Structure formats: C-alpha cells, structure tokens
Amino acid sequence: MRAKRFSLQAGDFLLDYSKNRITEKTISLLLDLAKAANLSQKIDDLFIGKSLNSTENRPALHTALRNRSKQAIYVNQNDIMPEVRSVLQKMQDFVEKIHQQTWLGATGKPIKHIVNVGIGGSHLGPLLTTSALSQNAITDLQFHFVSNIDGTHLNHVLQKIDPETTLFIISSKSFTTLETMTHAKTIRAWLEKKLNQTNLSNHFIAVTSAIEKANAFGISADAIFPLWEWVGGRFSVWSAIGLPLALMIGMPGFYEFLDGAYEMDQHFRHTDLRSNMPVILAMLGLWYINFFQTQSYAIIPYSDQLDFLRLYLQQLDMESNGKSTTHTGTTTQYHTAPIIWGEQGCNGQHAFYQLLHQGPYFIPVDFILVAEHPHPLEGHQDILIASALSQAKALMQGKPSTHLHKAFQGNRPSNILFMPKLTSRNLGALLALYEHKTFVQGVIWDINSFDQWGVELGKELLPQILLDFQTDNANPEHDPSTMHLIQHYKKMRNSSCEKL
Ligand code: F6P
C-alpha cells in the first residue's frame, strides 16, 4: 500500500508523504543525489562541530545545547559541554528564584511579568514555544514580547505591566541589534522614572555572547546568561534564549523540550537515509523546488498552539537557505530556499485555499496535525482533524467537472505530519526536525546555511538615512527615489515624538 510505503515514524511523529508526486524510483534517485553530496558525512560533521559555517569560520553546534548524553563535544580542542551544562544550571537557579519569589524587584515585590526584548532568533523561539506550551505553565507569570521598533508595540506592552513586578530579558546574541538596544534604553529610562530610582539590577537580565556590552549597559555578570559564537540566532531557542519557556514550564519541562530535540538528533544522525524523516522531508521539498520550479512552500498547522510556527520556520528556512552563492563562491544555477508562509488550517481554508486548489501553479504543503488538544471541545476536535484530511485528499485527488470553474485538477502534493499531543518533548522534536530538513537542503545546494550576510546591507545604509532625517540637507549621493522619500517623510512626520 502506497500510504504504508511512503510513511515514516520517528518518535511520536508519523509522516505520511504518500500524497507526493513520487514513485519508489523518485525517492531512490533523490537519495542518490543526497549521497552524491556526501550527506551522511556532512551530518556527522555537523554533530562533531566541524567548521560548517565557512564564511564565519565556525561550527554550528546548536545540537550541543541539547546533547543529553555524556559525550564531549569539542570546539578548538575544548570540550564545550561543561559550559553548556553550567548555563543550564544557572538557568535552573534563576527560574527557581523567580518561582519561589526570592528574586524581588527594586521595591521588594516578587516578579509577575516577564518581558522578552529581542528580535529574529532572539524573539521567535521564545514567542513560539511559550505560546505552544502555555497549557503546561506551572506559574501565573505573565509573558510579553517586544521586538518591532514601532513604538506602538512597546507602548502596548508597557501599558499591560506593572513596573515594580516586571523583569525584562534583553535577548541579543550580538547586543548591538538596533531595535533591541533602542528598546532596552527606552525601557531603562521608563523604569527609572516609574520607580524613581536608578538601581534596577533586579529588573534586567541579558542573554548574549557580548558579555562586555551587556556589562556596559549596566547588567552585572550574575544576571548575564552567556551564548556562544557557535550558536546561530535562529538556532538558539535551546540556549538561555529559551528562558521565557523555562520560566513558564519550569526546568524539568525545559529539559523535556531539549530531550525531544535530542531524540530527533539521534534519529537524524543514526537512521539510514531512506527512513530518515528530516532527510525525506528535505528531499521532497527539493524535488519540487528544483524539478518543478516551485517557489513557495506552505506550513499549515491544524493547531492553534502552533500559531507562530510559520514565523519561526520562515526565519529558519529563509535566513538559512535564501542564498545564491555556493561554498566555493560560485553562483547557484538552481533555485534554493522557497518562500515559506502559512496559517492555521481552518482559517486558511476560508482565505487562501482557493489558490491552493485552483490556482495556476501548485504549492507543496506540510499539514501539521495534533490528535489531542489541550481544550478538546466536543464536536470541535473531530471537525478540526477531518478538515485537514479532507483538504489534503481534495488537493491530491481533485475532481473533474464539465464546468471548468468547478473542476479541481488534483495531483497537488502535501505531507501530513501527525503527532498524538503537543508535549514539550514533541515541540522540541518538531523544531529539530525542521532544523535538520533545512540543513540537508543546504548541503545538497552546497550553500552555507549558517550565515546571513543578506541582512547586512540594509543595516549599513540605515545610519546615513537616520542622519539625513536630522539634518536640513540630505546626502546628495542618494538615488533620486530615496532622496525624494526622505524629503517626503520629513514633511509628514510627527513634529514631536513622545518620551515614555
Ligand atoms: O539581522 C538578522 C539577525 O542577525 C538574526 O540572524 C538574528 O536572529 C537577529 O538578527 C537578532 O540578532 P541578535 O540576537 O544579535 O540581536
């Protein structure tokens, strides 16, 4: 049976990929491609910390953060595991202090609000995981997130919190990201005013690899949770960047999250390519991108808990593989990362599914299904899962009709990833699954999935434009369009900005 032949089990997950445009031969040829790219060796290289991030000359060792074995992992001949474990211990001590209410704010009150201040990988992991596992919360701490520089975002959060009982986590690997640092300064000034004091040490902690910069901001060493150069921002939720999750579900829950990822790591590392879930998922994605020229990929969870998954995977996939230069510096003659997008299933059905079913091109879909939900309302749960199965079936089978506008072509591929329940462990495994899928595709495309030079140019241009906003004459070297827009903005902007 095709459904059996083209299904895989890894841990709690069933992947049914039988609705794809494949035969046994397709899979075997795709795996030949993987072998030709030396994939098995590259997987080993990833885990043992070879310098796979070639443009920055460093390993990508997010797997070390969830290495739950006793095995040492070396970077420059030093075993990094003792340091990893010591940061986990530091997280544990901190979480206990907050939970036991022995960590008090400047006016002697216990912490009730946690505000994560960060962007990109320093935001999306904490946002996704705390939203996905909120039913596992063991405290009534309130969690808030500030990422976007738009003042509306920060204002909105500040209105919901009580300064006396709020802890701000300044999450930034580099501690230079403009949005995060601007927020941090604004928040500090706001707190000083609200609490009428300058000793705010118990209201700020930092997660960063730039310890000195965090110190210079006024955060002392004991309130800094270190990160390492070998952890990429979009792979950092397993580190102290995951503190909001640890604070929400407690360290035992956080360890389960790491366990789930570790189990997926073991599956990825030790399972033959034909039965390897990240590998199969990657090769199917690549099949459509490189052999059918698809440019888009939909991630559709039928689960409210996974609402933010598409945003998380957008950064993971598009920042990792949205590249056109190979390791050796040549331009790729093939497409790489697709445009990742999506939405919760039932909402999508009443919005963009029209295009999925009858649009002029096909878009491969991953449907992510959770059998048991935390709030199973009678009648709702079965409708939810039946909806996903009906949509996947309709995409695959289509329906002929003499009325063209009522005809469905069918043969539109999708994967179904089914899990019994969204536990901490399964969430860890799910994120690790997609990390490895992304890595495999990067290997086949011969690109470095661990750098992100494409985000730099815009950042470089920004200071000059900011300066032009503040001076009468804009830099004459701007192109006419930018010059025109700078002048336009200067005429329209608020004459005075609010100080919080
Ligand atoms: O600009 C992109 C980026 O560097 C991401 O890769 C990263 O996750 C994000 O910015 C935030 O960086 P940081 O943690 O250094 O503030």
- Rg, Å, rounded: 24 Å
Can you say what the CATH homologous superfamily of the largest domain is?
Answer: Glucose-6-phosphate isomerase like protein, domain 1
Shape: globular
Overall strand count: 13
Describe this structure in words.
With 500 residues, the protein is of the alpha/beta class. It has three domains: 2-36 and 271-451, 3-Layer(aba) Sandwich (Rossmann fold); 66-247, Glucose-6-phosphate isomerase like protein, domain 1 (Rossmann fold, 3-Layer(aba) Sandwich), CATH 3.40.50.10490; 457-499. Helix content is 46%, strand content 13%. It is built from 18 helices and 13 strands. The chain has helices spanning 2-5, 24-36, 39-48, 62-65, 81-99, 124-132, 151-160, 178-195, 211-217, 243-270, 277-291, 309-321, 345-349, 353-358, 380-397, 424-445, 456-470, 480-492, and strands spanning 7-10, 13-16, 74-75, 78-79, 113-117, 142-146, 166-171, 204-208, 224-226, 296-302, 339-342, 365-372, 414-421. It has a six-stranded mixed beta sheet, sandwiched between helices. Strands 6-5-7-8-9 form a five-stranded parallel beta sheet, with helices on both faces. A two-stranded antiparallel ribbon has the order 3-4. Strand 7, helix 8 and strand 8 form a beta-alpha-beta unit. Helix 10 (243-270) crosses helix 16 and helix 11 packs across helix 16. 42% of the residues are buried. The model has no long low-confidence stretch (mean pLDDT 96). The structure holds 6-O-phosphono-beta-D-fructofuranose. Residues 119-122, 172-174, 177, 180, 233-234, 319, 452, 455 line the site of 6-O-phosphono-beta-D-fructofuranose.
